[in-house]
Fold this protein.
Amino acid sequence: MKKLILLVLLLVLLAFTIPILFTIPFQGKAVAGEVEKSNSMELENQISEEAYAYSSYGEIKLYHAKTNTVETIPLDTYLYGVVSAEMPVDFEVEALKAQAIVARTYTIYTISNSAGKHEGADICDDSTCCQAWISKEDRLAKWEEAKREENWKKIVGAVNATKGKVIVYEGKPINAFFHSNSGGTTEPPVNVWGGTGYPYLQAVQTAGEENYSQYASEVTLSKTELEEKIRQSHSDFTINWQEPECIKILEYTDGNRVKTVKIGNIEMSGVEARTLFGLRSANFTFLIQEDSVTFQVKGYGHGVGMSQTGADSLAKEGKSAEEIIHHFYQNVEIISW
Ligand SMILES: [Zn+2]
């Protein structure tokens, strides 16, 4: 009888501990990204995890530009920090999911194609170099306290819902450029950086971009300021402000941005003008006044790839993350990596 009770107790104990043994290392891995030593049970967990694991990019080495340190973190934990740095949390969930897939793809592309860019690291947290990233602590501190938990859950949920999803063209992760607001039409990269471009990055139109604060902006420079800025890189610059066409847009790009503008005796690309005058995009018109020039700008960013406000606008129309991605990147597939 004693033996029977003991046996029943043992069975009860096993019934409780076996699931724990199966789930704890798994959860620990998903949350903290710790690499567990393998035993037979964990091997089972690894097999179930393989279904959404990245074959070689489970963890990445992130270079923190400001502190000059390298941190090793799980890819998706890194992506929480990227998505919450790159896109407003009040955007639609499908837009955040699209951003997560795009950011994961961009990360893997960068790791595969920019080896040696950062010594001892895969990618950095500087938005002007690789991709913006913010720590959870810093992110939460920037949100009002009552919304912190809800906001973070939304970001984590969007990334986790896209686990392992990567955009490929002919089987390879794409160079998944993205920007803030296209001004209505995106831009092939050849018009921004030259080169041969990519077949999946063409000019596409998105309705609804004008509903966002990123759409329209203005920069006013005094004529003297403008002249000084141009002389920084063109020492032979001259301009006669009395001439009716002393500033003239000569050519537009496929995405309606300024391709070439003539200012005084100097011809420059719209991209150069954007940089020189601090404009949000190369999609601009200008107004010459008595003592100043005002640039009226549409859109925000280089205009290549996915527009974030465009993604949100499409999500509001009921489009899924996958549909949003197919809108901005041509003839691509979204696969589990
Ligand atoms: Zn970088």
